[in-house]
Each structure stands twice: as C-alpha cells, then as structure tokens.
C-alpha cells in the first residue's frame, strides 16, 4: 500500500524519530544509499517558484540513483489545462512518485487520491513538512538532541510554523510561537500539535510578546511577505518590524542559534549581520533540506 507525505500530523513520535535517524544516517553515509532509487523516476510538479526545494530534490534524487522530471506548471502552460485528478492519474502511469509544490493543500489531497504512487508535499498553504524535518535535523546536529530543547518562532503564523509545531511536538521539542495580533498560527493545527505534544512531554506556548522568547535555545523566523501577497511593504513593516529578529533580541532571549527557512529578506524579518554571524544555522538548514528529503524518499520508495 502506497504511503503519501502531505503532513506529519498523522505520524507517531516513534515514526518521526525513526525518520530523523534515517536522515542522519543518509547524511553521514550517502554511499550506502546511492542505489535506493535506481531505475526510478520522480516527477516534481511546481506551481510556485523555488530555489532550495527544486535544487535539493533534483540533486538529492540523483544522489539516490534516481531521475527527476521537473514540471513548471506556469511556464509550461499546464495551469488549468486539465483537472488535477487527471494530471495526477497520468503522472502516476510513468512516475514512481510525485513531488508537488502547490498553492493549495486541497490540490495535494486530490493528487494523493488520484495517484497510485506516493505524493510528497514540497510546500502548500498549510504545511511545509520537508522544511520541518530539515530544521530538526539541523537542531539535532547542533545540540545532539531535540527532546527538551526550546524553539521560538517569531513572525507570521504560516505553513512553516505549522510544520515546526507538528514535527517539534513529535520530537519532544518545546515550542514558543510569537506573532503580532491577528497573525497567529491556525488554531486547529496548534490544538493538534498540543495533543501530539502530550505524548512526548513537550510544551507549546503562544504569545504576542517578545518576552516569551526568554530562555529559548533557538529563535526561528520566516519572511513576513508570503509569495503572491500584494500587501504594501510599508503596511507589513508597520505590523512586523517590532518583531524583527536581531542581535538585541538574541541577547535578551539567551538564544544561542538563529534559523530561517529562506528566502530571507535582509534587514526586514532578520538582520543581515545576524544571517552572517556564527549564530546562524541558515546554510546548514538549506543543506539539510536534501538529506531530510532523501530520507523521506528512501522511506516511501525503497520498499
């Protein structure tokens, strides 16, 4: 029976720990996994532009011995050409899996229902599971564990926030989410993450105050302006500039590391000097996108 990865919300702590361990093993001994996808082809269907996701999947699949076919929905004039259900059904006639970066989570659900091969969420409006796995792989490498640590997310409650909450809860990592009023994470997803956290002993705190970050191990932020959002920058800055991640905030909170999923807007949500500092884990996160995704591909396809 095929297994999709649209979100980690239905995973167990044990399964999440196992996948993290696999990602560590693949990164440390890539040669041992160089034929996992031998003879397999993966279609990567992108409705949205990408740097890290596209390149990390393409090179990662190659390192596993497979072949990636990239489909740009917009430039390839595929958008609206046929129903999503027919797109997925056709792709699964040839491909061994479908990686999809889409605007709407419902598109992924349609793909998963129509395709008889695994569907992997490479980003949607609700979740970014591949990013979440890469981020906790990075934390594990930095601290030697995830359990008992605290990650504080500061900014707009979005798809990245949701996956950080879910994966963190499964891995026993305490979560603090600090957002401006009106920009909180989805309440139903937060509630689900809290239910998962009860199984691992992790805590989840929501706040609109920066003081809630005090005592954290890691501060995490993301862009304030999501792709396709036409809100004027000055309006965005008026709301979010008090939540900028900078050196003063790092010192006040006691955080030893800063994270950002990128693309980062220097001197908006995070200062450029902090990105370039020895506290920054940004490039390690970017590198780990490939290793985390390769663990996902190995788990879903190696059998």
TrEMBL record:
Catalytic activity: carbamoyl phosphate + L-ornithine = L-citrulline + phosphate + H(+)
Enzyme class: transferase
Gene Ontology MF terms in the entry: amino acid binding; ornithine carbamoyltransferase activity
Ranges of residues in domain Aspartate/ornithine carbamoyltransferase carbamoyl-P binding: 4-141
SUPFAM superfamilies linked: Aspartate/ornithine carbamoyltransferase
Residue ranges constituting the Aspartate/ornithine carbamoyltransferase Asp/Orn-binding domain according to the UniProt record: 148-298
GO biological process, one term: L-arginine biosynthetic process via ornithine
Gene3D superfamilies documented for this protein: Aspartate/ornithine carbamoyltransferase
Alphabetized UniProt keyword annotations: Transferase
Record family assignment: Belongs to the aspartate/ornithine carbamoyltransferase superfamily. OTCase family.
Protein name (record): Ornithine carbamoyltransferase
